[in-house]
């Protein structure tokens, strides 16, 4: 089990880039804000992902024949810490239910190493 203890957390709110977490075990995770929004761990988003078969962080697919609509860039208006174990985003689309625990953030790390590991795990589960 990888460590879910951050050494430092940087939220690039003004530049709108995303979040950078330096873990105690030396791993570095960088998340773009739209990725985090699509990986929102709240019950509502969790249910939506389960019904649409979308993985955490995977963008919502547009329906066939649907014209790409203009969507404002997803960005948090503010970020607040939740105890010592999580943080919470106040997104510019009004959503603010997700509590992003360090554990969850480590699980959804979008780097090549972690995505590769998760793919292997799925393979093992399927046999
Ligand atoms: Zn949510
Ligand atoms: Zn990683």
What is the makeup of the main sheet? 3 strands, antiparallel
CATH architecture descriptor: 2-Layer Sandwich
Q: How would you sum up the global shape?
A: globular
Q: Structural class of the secondary structure composition?
A: alpha+beta
Rg over C-alpha atoms, rounded to the nearest angstrom: 15 Å
If strands are numbered along the chain, what order do they take across the biggest sheet?
A: 1-2-3
Write down the domain tally.
1
Number of strands: 6
The CATH class is identified as Alpha Beta
Chemical compounds bound to the protein = zinc ion
Which percent band covers the strand fraction?
25-35%
* Overall average pLDDT: 90
CATH topology, what is it called?
Answer: NE0471 N-terminal domain-like
Structure description:
By secondary structure, the chain is α+β, with helices and mostly antiparallel strands. The protein has one domain: NE0471 N-terminal domain-like (2-Layer Sandwich). The chain is about 30% helix and about 25% strand. It is built from four helices and six strands. The strands form two sheets. It has a three-stranded antiparallel sheet. It has a three-stranded antiparallel sheet with strand order 4-5-6. The longest helix has 15 residues, at about 110-125. The chain is globular. The model has no long low-confidence stretch (mean pLDDT about 90). Bound molecules: zinc ion (2 copies). The site of one zinc ion (ZN) has 7 residues, from helix 2.
What's the structural blueprint in terms of helices and strands?
Layout: E1 6-12, E2 18-23, E3 28-32, H1 33-38, H2 43-52, E4 76-82, E5 86-91, E6 99-101, H3 102-107, H4 112-126
Antiparallel strand pairs: 1-2, 2-3, 4-5, 5-6
The structure holds zinc ion (2 copies).
